[in-house]
Amino acid sequence: MKYAKIAVFANIDNLLTYDCGGYEPSMAGKRAIVPLGSKLVSGLITGPEDALPPGFPESKIKKIKEIIDVSPALPENLIKLGLFIADYYICAPGMVFSSMLAPLKKVRSKKTVKLISDAPGPKGFTDAQRMVIDYLKTRRGRRADIRDIMEFGVKQCAKTVKELEESGNVTSEETAALSKSRTGGAPPDMAAAAEKAGITLNPGQQSAYEEITGAVKAGLFKTFALFGVTGSGKTEIYLRAAKEAVSAGKKVIVLVPEIFLTPQLTESFLRHFKDRTAVYHSGLSEPERRHEWQRIRDGGVDIVVGTRSAIFAPFDKAGLIIVDEEFDQSYKQENDPRYNAKDMAVVRGTIDPAVVVLGSATPSVETYHNAVTGKYAMLKLDGRVEERPLPEVEVIDLKYDLNKSRDLFFSNEFIAKAREALDRGEQAIIFLNRRGFSSLIMCPQCGHIEKCGSCDIPLVYHRADTVVKCHYCASEKEPPVKCPSCGKTLFYKGLGTQKIEDVAQKFFPEKKVFRVDIDSMKQNDHVAIYEKIKNREIDLLVGTQMIAKGFDFPEVTFVGVAGIDSVLNLPDFRAEERVFQLLTQVSGRAGRGGKPGKVVIQTFNPESSGIRAAAKNTPEKFYEEQLRLRREHGYPPFKFLLQFIVSDMREERCAAAAEKVRETAEAAAAAAGVKSYSVLGPAPAPLSRIRNRFRYSVIIKSPSRKDLNTMGRAVKKGHFKAVVSIIMDPVSTL
User: Fold this and answer.
1) What is the C-alpha to C-alpha distance for residues 29 and 35, in angstroms, rounded to an integer?
2) Residue 703, Cα to own-chain centre: how many angstroms?
3) Residue scoring higher pLDDT (577 or 566)
4) How would residue 500 be classed by pLDDT, with cut points 50, 70 and 90?
5) For residue 569, how many other CB atoms are within 10 A of its CB?
6) Given the DSSP bridges, would you call strands 377-381 and 222-228 parallel, antiparallel or unpaired?
7) Going by CATH, does the domain composed of 3-104 fall within 3.40.1440.60?
8) pLDDT class for 490, splitting at 50, 70, 90?
9) Which strand (E) or helix (H) includes residue 148?
10) SS3 assignment, position 516
11) pLDDT value at position 150?
12) 111-175 adopts what CATH topology?
C-alpha cells in the first residue's frame, strides 16, 4: 500500500491521506512531517490506506516529507482509543493524539546520512541525487542530518536518500527519539512484600479481591464498581490485585483525581513494587514527564500511578485499570479534547482488554445506577478495617447556633470539639471549599459588590499576597478601600481558607496550623506537606477539597466543616450529589487509626438531602432519591447531555450565535429523523462572563448518545460569529 492515514496536529476534523513517499506503509503509531497548505506540519500515522478518497485525483496527493520516529510513538491500542475519543467527544483526532504525545512534543528521532562514494552508477545520478552528494561533500565528516538535507531543497528527500543507500553511495543511521531507559530490574517478590506487611484481608476484602483477580487472570474485560465506606481498605485490594496482575505478566494503570493524592497512594505502590512503578501527572516538570513516559514505553515499568492523563500510559496492553475516587469531577478535561478519564478507562478496558475497577466510598449517581442494574459488577465493603467505627457526625444549624457563639465563623460546639482533640495530642482538619481570606467585598451603604471587570464574578481578597483576585481569569489588583458607586468604605466579608487559618491560629496559638489549597501549593509541595502531617509537624490542617479524599492519617480524630452551603447553592443538577460526596469524603478522614472520630458540620441548610445522608450514613437512600429525581427531570443516567457554550466579547453577538447553534442542532435532528430530545436554552450561562467574554449555554437532552453526536457534529461543521465549545457528558453545567 502506498498511502497512509494521518491525524495532523491541528484542529482538522478528519484524517488526511498522504502518499508514503518511499517510506514503508506499516508505520502506524509513528509521527510524520507532512505538507498542509503552504506549511509543513507534524501528525500521527494512524494506519495504511488502500486507496485515495473517492473523486480525489492522484496528481493532487501530497507526500510524507519525513518520519520523525524510528519505532512507533503510540501502540495500536492507544491509536484506537484516540480515534474513539475524537469521534465520541466531537473533536479533531490530531488534537487528541497531540495530547497523548505531550511528553514528546520537543523530541524527535534523528537520521544521519553519510557519504560513502560519489561515483555514479551505470545510469548516473538524478538531479536530486546529485544535490545530496554535493551537499554531503561540503559537510564535516561528509555526513549530515536528513532534515538539513531536506532544508537544502532536495525534493523527495527520503526517497532520494533511500535510492542512494541502495546504490551504495550513502549509509544512514537512525537514533530513536528517546534513548532506552533503565528497566528497573526484575519485579520484586510480591508475596514476600505482602507477608512482611502482615495485613490480613477481612471477609469483605477477600471476596472483592478474589472477584477482581479471577477476572484479571482470565484476561477478561470486566468493570467492577468497588463501593466501600471510608477506611474500608480499598487500597489494600488495589495493591493485591495489582500484585496478581504483575505476577501474570500484565501492566497496571492506577488513576487518582488530584496531584495531592498521588504521594500517599504512590508510596504504597513504591513500597510494594519498588522502581517498577512510574508516577505520571501534570505536576511533574517537562523532563520528569518525558523520563517517566520513556520508562513506561520501554517496558521498565509495570505500574503507572497518576492523574487524568495517565490513562494514556503507552503500554501495548494494560491488564488492570484502577480508578480511585471515580466520582471526582477532575477526571473530566476542561479543554479539547474534553474526555472523561474515568469513562475512557472503561473504553480502554474493552480495547486492551483489561479489568477495570471503579473505586469510591461515594460513587457517582451514574456509576451506582450501572452497578445496581448489572452493567457493572458491584463489590461492597460495608465496614472499616479492623471493625473500626465510623466517626460520630453532628450537624449544627447556623441559623440558631451562630448567634450564641463568640465567633462569627465557628460555633461554640465546633471550637470545643476541635480543642478536645488537640488537647489530647491528636490532629484535626478544618475543611472549607473556598480559597482566599474574604470571599465577598461589598458596600454596606449601596450594596455594591466588587467584581472582576473581565468575568462579572465577585473578587476574593488574598491577605497573604495583599491583593484581590479573580478565581476564574487569575487577574488581580490592589484591594479597593472606597466604593466606586457611592464613596463609602467597603466591607470585607465572607469566609476563605486564609481567614479560617488565621482565626484557627488565634483560637489555638500553641498549635501548628497549616493551610493546603491551590494558593499555598507549589510544584512538588504535596510530597513535603504529606510528610509533615505524617511526622506530626502539623497539628491542625486547614484546606479545600484537596484534603478531602484518600488520606489516611491515623492521628486525625476531629474534622470540622466550616461551610458547605456555597456548594449546595450552585445552580447545577449535581449540587446535592457533590455535597454528599464532599461531606462523606472529608468526614472519612476522622478516626481512621483506631481512636474514635468526631465530625462537626456547620450549615444554614441542615435539611439538605446530601447533608442528611452524609451525617446519617444512608448512601443507598440518597442514591435512590437522586435517581428518582433525575428520572423525573430527565438527567443522567436516564438521559444524556450535550452542552454548547457559546462565547463572545459582545453579548448581542453571543446570544445570536447561541440561537443559531440551537437551530443548527435541531435542523440536523430533523434531517436524521431524530425526535426524542429536548433543548434548554439558549440562555446566559450561570457563569455569564469570563475573561471579558459573555457566555451562553445550550443544553440538549436525549436518551441516545448517537443522536446527540449527530447534532453535535452538525454544530461542529457550522459557521458562527462566536466561539462554540462542544461538551459531551458535562460533569457541570455552569
Assistant:
1) 19
2) 26
3) 577
4) confident
5) 12
6) parallel
7) yes
8) confident
9) helix 146-151
10) strand
11) 74
12) Arc Repressor Mutant, subunit A (1.10.10)
How far apart are the C-alpha atoms of 630 and 376, rounded to whole Å? 20
Helix (H) / strand (E) containing 178? none
Instruction: State the cell numbers at 690.
Output: 469570563
User: Are 362 and 580 a contacting pair, CB within 8 Å?
Assistant: yes
The answer to whether the CB of 473 falls within 8 A of the CB of 452 is: yes
Per-chain mean pLDDT for the chain: 86
The domain 388-434+495-629 is classified under which CATH number: 3.40.50.360, 3.40.50.2300, 3.40.50.300, 3.30.420.40?
A: 3.40.50.300
Beta bridge partners of 277: 303
User: How far is 348 from 512, CA to CA, in rounded Å?
Assistant: 45
Angstrom distance (rounded) from CA 80 to CA 555: 47
- Parallel, antiparallel, or unpaired for β 467-469 and 460-462? antiparallel
Q: Which helix (H) or strand (E) holds 663?
A: helix 651-671
- What CATH topology corresponds to 190-386? Rossmann fold (3.40.50)
Question: Could you give the dihedral angle defined by the CA atoms of residues 648, 651, 653 and 654, in that order, rounded to the nearest 10 degrees?
Answer: 50
pLDDT surpasses 50 at 185: no
The residue to which cell 487528541 is assigned: 96
Q: How far apart are the C-alpha atoms of 599 and 614, rounded to whole Å?
A: 11
The 10s digit of each residue's pLDDT in 385-406 is: 667 778 899 998 887 765 555 4
CB atoms within 10 A of CB 2: 18
For the chain, what are the domain ranges? 3-104, 111-175, 190-386, 388-434+495-629, 640-728
> In the prediction, which pLDDT does 191 show?
38
pTM above 0.70, yes or no: yes
The answer to whether 601 and 611 are in contact (CB under 8 A) is yes
Nearest CA to 22 among 63, 73, 70?
63
Structure confidence by residue, pLDDT tens digits, 30-50: 999 999 988 889 999 999 888
- Which three-class secondary structure string do you get for 132-160? HHHHHHCCHHHEEEHHHHHHCCCCCHHHH
pLDDT reading at 54 higher than 90: no
Give the mean pLDDT of 663-688. Answer: 94
Grid cell at residue 254: 492506577
CATH topology of domain 640-728: Alpha-Beta Plaits (3.30.70)
Say yes or no: do domains 190-386 and 388-434+495-629 share a fold.
Answer: yes
Q: Quick check: 151 pLDDT over 90? A: no
pLDDT digits (tens, 9 = 90+) for 269-308: 888 888 889 988 777 778 888 889 989 998 999 999 999 9
**Peptide bond just before 72 cis, omega within 30 deg:** no
**Distances from the Cα of 597 to the Cαs of 58, 413, 496, 564, 638, in angstroms?**
74, 15, 25, 20, 38
Dihedrals φ, ψ of 618, to 5°? -120, 65
Banded model confidence at residue 549, pLDDT cuts 50, 70, 90: low
Per-residue pLDDT band at 438 (split at 50, 70, 90):
low
Using DSSP's 3-state secondary structure scheme, residue 343 falls into: helix
Residues 401-414 have pLDDT tens digits of 655 554 557 888 88
47-73 b/e (C-beta count within 10 Å ≥ 16 → b): bbbeeeeeeeeeeebebbbbbbbeebb
The cell for 259 is 496531584
Query: Could you tell me the three cell numbers for 460?
Result: 476574593
Cell of 634: 430527565
44, β-bridge pairs: 7, 31
Phi, psi torsion values for 161, nearest 5 degrees: -65, -40
Mean pLDDT of 658-662: 97
Q: What is the DSSP letter of 385?
A: G
Q: Give 303-347 pLDDT, tens digit per residue.
A: 999 999 999 999 999 999 999 999 999 999 998 999 999 999 999
Which of 375, 499, 364, 369 is closest to 439 using CA atoms? 499
What is d(CA 48, CA 595) in angstroms, rounded to the nearest whole number?
A: 63
Type of residue at 426: E
